Amino acid sequence: MTENSSNSSPKMGKYLRYALQGVTLGVLATAIILFFTVEEETWGHIEQFNWWFAPIILMAIVVAWLCNGGRIWINSRALGHQLTYQQAISVSMSTEFGIAASPAGMGGTALRLYLLKKAHVPLTTSASMLAADVVVDLTFFGLLTPVAIFFILKDKNWTEMFAKLPGWQMAVAGGIVLAGLVGMVVFFQTGLWSKVIHSIAMATTQGRKRRWPGKFRHFRWELKRSMRRIWLITRFLFRKRRSALLINFCLASVQWLCRYGALPLILLAFGSPNNPFPLLFIQGFLFLFAMLVFLPGGGGGVEVATAILLGHFVPVSMVGLVLLLWRFSTYHLYLIGGGAVFFYVSTHMDRIFPPNKKEETKTVDTV
Question: Do 123 and 113 contact (CB within 8 A), yes or no?
């Protein structure tokens, strides 16, 4: 039996193609921004850069990776699955690669669920672990939001920056986002989504021929049953494993502070006099924006949005440099590190995730 015996494992080539698209679009956007922001003062900024911050930034990213693996390790053990830390970090790093190398980060969830299944964690349990992580992340950012707003209101540079933004454009953008969120809630909570899909299935000849309405009803039934299981397991974690959730929250706090701390550290390395703390909070919206853009790595949109933000925060001659270092730290390093781990896991699957005795017996019987 070979080490990579699973025929249903995710294909490395597909993720590499998506990763190449994301890197190409991101590098192209960064190159264009650099072209329009490089001035004579830019070379002076390079000389002023404090290179002692480079290992600190790199260490912060590594700590973020280790914390993410620790969260999976803690959650799995809280639910009775004895994953090793090597397995947990393999899942987390592969997930980071999947997020960075797929449109809207959808590949990250697929890789996470697949690898946890290889570690003999049931799908519903894996989904519950993911749901618990999302709740913990939202709690962290919910607590961070008022602190960030406090620093923004207390900082003259930040208040002046927001005062310069066109009010009507901000109002329109906020209205569109609010309307979209309300529309999504109404669409899913009222059951309108199921009626729309059912109508589309009935309106097409192919849908009637392949009995899509019946298959969709079965899918809805399976979805409700899975959501019920996810809710029960998540409630069990909150009621019976609060210590695990507390540790998860602490690890999540360190993880996000280290990951989003890269931009403030880069600005400090350049000697920026402005308070960079609110950027920890703002980067959360940039990350969400990257997920909404259905292209790997945000398709260059993150670079453009960040450049616009940085243009109000640092001199124009510094924007391209800060952007280049920030995206390398928070995107390209995740592609490189996560991709290396995913490639290693793919070629040593049965050693990292050994099959249990039932699977080995089944394999021998089929042979």
Answer: yes
Dihedral sign (CA 52, 55, 61, 66): negative
Burial (CB count <10 Å: 0-12, 13-18, 19+), residue 67? buried
Mean pLDDT of the chain: 76
Q: What is the three-state SS of 273-290?
A: CCCCCHHHHHHHHHHHHH
Per residue in 119-149, pLDDT (tens digit) is 999 888 888 888 888 888 888 888 888 887 7
201: region left, alpha or beta (phi > 0 left; psi from -120 to 50 alpha): alpha
At residue 82, does pLDDT exceed 60? Answer: yes
| Letter string b/e over residues 292-315, b meaning 16 or more CB atoms within 10 A of that residue's CB | ebebbbbbbbbbbbbbebbeebbb
Q: For residue 311, name the pLDDT band (cuts at 50, 70, 90).
A: confident
Which comes out higher in pLDDT, residue 341 or 191? Answer: 341
CA–CA distance, 269 with 287 (Å, rounded to integer): 23
Query: Would you list the DSSP string of 19-70?
Result: HHHHHHHHHHHHHHHHHHH--HHHHHHHHH--TTHHHHHHHHHHHHHHHHHH
Distance, in Å, from the CA atom of 232 to the CA atom of 226, rounded to the nearest integer, reads 10
Round to whole Å and give the CA distance between 166 and 214: 51
Encoded tokens for 250: 């602490």
The candidate with the shortest Cα–Cα distance to 220, out of 199, 185, 196, 194, is 194
Distance CA 296, CA 5 (A): 29
pTM over cut 0.85: no
8 Å CB contact between 67 and 252: yes
Alpha helices in the chain (DSSP H): 12-37, 40-48, 53-78, 85-100, 106-118, 123-154, 156-164, 167-189, 192-203, 205-209, 212-240, 242-260, 262-269, 278-292, 301-311, 316-327, 333-347, 349-352, 357-366
* 62 alpha-carbon distance from chain centroid: 16
